[in-house]
Amino acid sequence: MKETDTDVLVVGGGPAGLSAALFAQKNGLETVCFDTDETWMHKAHLFNYLGVGSVDGSAFMETARSQTDSFGVDRVGADVTDVSRTDEGFLAETEDGPYAGRYVVLATGANRDLAESLGCAFDGDLVDVDVTMETSVEDAYATGAMVRNEEWQAIISAGDGAAAALNVLSKEKGEHFHDFDVPADADAVFASMSEE
């Protein structure tokens, strides 16, 4: 099986994972997102997500996936069975073969097994992260329910994913990175998408 190299490996296809993948790919980092569609969002209905009046969780996820895909994220429907550190970054093992990346963002909800096998430090039952969402393992980030005690909200998870990606981008750029768009940016993106 062939090892696939990329910039960012995102493990998890819920709000945190898709948000991290979108921000990273949108800003020039090749991103693979492992999304097996096992998110708890399929049981949710959003009334408390700022900017969203009322939407079924599955409909929200369909929109989120479509948006992420439109930026070119490589979404892979394979389970990640292990993540390990390599000299160049990380290796994610799947039934389809290994994927290598320089950064990894763990977005596996309350399942913290991959963080544990990677050797991330824990604070009680939670993966210990700093304000950038980086774990004790350099260039490995953890998000959402795996780092928060009972704060399992879609909007919080999406924010954690975005924060992780922006901090990866800051490392890459060597300075604090902002992802702030104006209407002209959106017009340019949509024009380039329609040309493809």
SSE layout:
Layout: E1 4-11, H1 15-26, E2 31-34, E3 45-46, E4 55-56, H2 57-70, E5 74-76, E6 80-85, E7 90-94, E8 97-106, H3 113-118, E9 122-123, E10 126-127, E11 140-142, H4 154-173, H5 183-195
Helix pairs in contact: 1-2, 1-4
Folded structure, characterized:
- Helix 1 (15-26) runs parallel beside helix 2 and helix 1 (15-26) packs parallel to helix 4 (154-173).
- This protein has 196 residues and is of the alpha/beta class.
- It has a single domain, classed as 3-Layer(bba) Sandwich (FAD/NAD(P)-binding domain), CATH 3.50.50.60.
- The protein has helices spanning 15-26, 57-70, 113-118, 154-173, 183-195; strands at residues 4-11, 31-34, 45-46, 55-56, 74-76, 80-85, 90-94, 97-106, 122-123, 126-127, 140-142.
- The two termini are 31 Å apart.
- The longest helix is centred in the last third of the chain and has 20 residues, at 154-173.
- The strands form three sheets. Strands 1, 2, 5, 6, 7, 8 and 11 form a seven-stranded mixed β-sheet that branches. Strands 3-4 form a two-stranded antiparallel sheet.
Q: Ranges with pLDDT <50 over ≥5 residues?
A: none
CATH architecture designation = 3-Layer(bba) Sandwich
CATH superfamily: FAD/NAD(P)-binding domain
The class by helix and strand makeup works out as alpha/beta
State the share of residues found in helices, binned by percent. Answer: 25-40%
For the biggest sheet, the summary is: 7 strands, mixed
Q: Write the CATH fold name.
A: FAD/NAD(P)-binding domain
Morphology: globular
* DSSP strand tally: 11
Radius of gyration: 16 Å
N-to-C series of helices and strands: EHEEEHEEEEHEEEHH
- Please identify the top-level CATH class: Alpha Beta
Instruction: Please indicate the count of domains.
Output: 1
